[in-house]
Fold this sequence. Notes:
Strand content of chain B: under 5%
Largest sheet of chain A: 6 strands, mixed
Structural class of chain B: mainly alpha
CATH superfamily of the largest domain in chain A: P-loop containing nucleotide triphosphate hydrolases
Oligomer: heterodimer
Amino acid sequence: MLAISTKNLSKFYGEQVGIKDVNLEVNQGEIFGFVGPNGSGKSTAIRTFLGLLKPTSGSASILGQDIDSEGAELRKKIGYLPSEVHYYEEMSSLELLNYHARFYDNVDVSKIHELAEYFELQLDRKITDLSFGNKKKCAIIQAIVHKPELLILDEPTSGLDPLMQNRFFELLEKENENGTTIFFSSHILSEVQRLCDRAAVIRNGEIIAVENIQDLLMKQMKKVTLIFKEQQLDLKIPSGCQHKKWHNKKLTFDYVGPIDLLVDWMSQQELIDAVLEEPDLESIFMNYYER
Amino acid sequence: MIWTTIVVGFTVMVLSIFPFMADMGKDMTQLIDNMPVELQKAMGMDAQTWSNILGFYSTYFGIYIVVLVAIYTTSTGATIISKEEKDGTSEFLMTKPISRLTIFKTKMMSLLVLTILIYVIQTLSAIIGISAFAQSEVLWSKLATMQISGFFLVLFFTSIGVLLSMFVKPKKNFMGIVVGLTFGSYFLNAIAKSTDATSWLGYFSPFNYVDFTVLASDYEINYMAIIGFVAIAAVLLFIAFKSYAKKDIAG
């Protein structure tokens, strides 16, 4: 049985495409990345999985149950972390989490306190008084506390400080070891890289690639920015460089190839500064598909 | 809570004015006799209105109290689902393992309980007020008839409120529409009653189907109207649910 399986799942808002002919297969026990720029349809797909949006055409089943006709039963097994958290503002975190727990069978309420301690969340404060990051922590606890078989996370790290992000990832890894499937939507490559086994890339509502992350990293390019003492328009640069561009004394290009070749070459230049950075995931994929 | 207080306060206030009015009864009767017949009919008054507490109360009941209660319950009906959508908390609720039918049913049940609660409180305050200020024997069965008719009218408006919330955007403030709807249909009925030439307008106003002329000798419950209200309300709620069931919850 697959954790998530969609068949030509489409959602249109009138004429506008939300998602189009999405075919995805996510295995149980996997941490599956779902990446794409803002507005590419990540949230639309996720909200359709959860029954918040009704598909225009196509179908999807999660853990063997249809998202539309068996939605209520199915949602017992899902933990959902929305990208933007909207809660009943007059409740305290504890009231909210207890209310949440009442919708599920056999929730261990002591786990709420355990998780709150782990994330350093004060449970007695009202939702309306919580910062964005603290609301997010409350949402994380809410997604995890009823021990779902599938966790659906929509840009989960926005608003969390690095320390909390790290604790959160450690928790996710632990949950995954215990068998939880994780569907992880993000536009931040490093997160996906750290956690995910595979990832799908979505662009303008369509899945353009499903990749194994390890394979992908081997092919990863670097964005290189070098500042020279002098502009040298006739400079020879190593093979594997693309999109070379000079701005006065600054040279930028994309590099795909063995890193030691690049470093050797750089050491022979008269440089003032050098920056090597990962491009966003979208351009990696685009670069990968252009070749 | 605030609305209950207003409605109760209003009921008691109206009834407490009665003794003063009754003292002026004779003068008032003369004054009303001198008023154009059209205006009398529109306001649901006649010469007896001012000398009998039930007649007096019914005038205010028809004009203000039913409308006030209806405004409150209708606007609550309009916001009971849409507020969660506006605040984004519907996302929290609808990602839980419950169906939209369950959510809808639960919300409608609480709306019904709330409507009954405010109505019962209003009725009790009317009974207490009438007992306190009545100067002659009170025909309680007439009061019961009026209160029951009024309740179904309120229910009917409330279901319109629920339906409104499904189709009206933006979901900020339904008060304007609700006040317009309730007062509008009241005045439509008032105009309809004033002359024969305008009586056809009455068909468009739910007020036309329940009258509050308690002092008429043949005053009784209009069962057809009540069945009609309940049936139409059920249809409206059904349409509202159908729309709710396939609705997209935007992020």
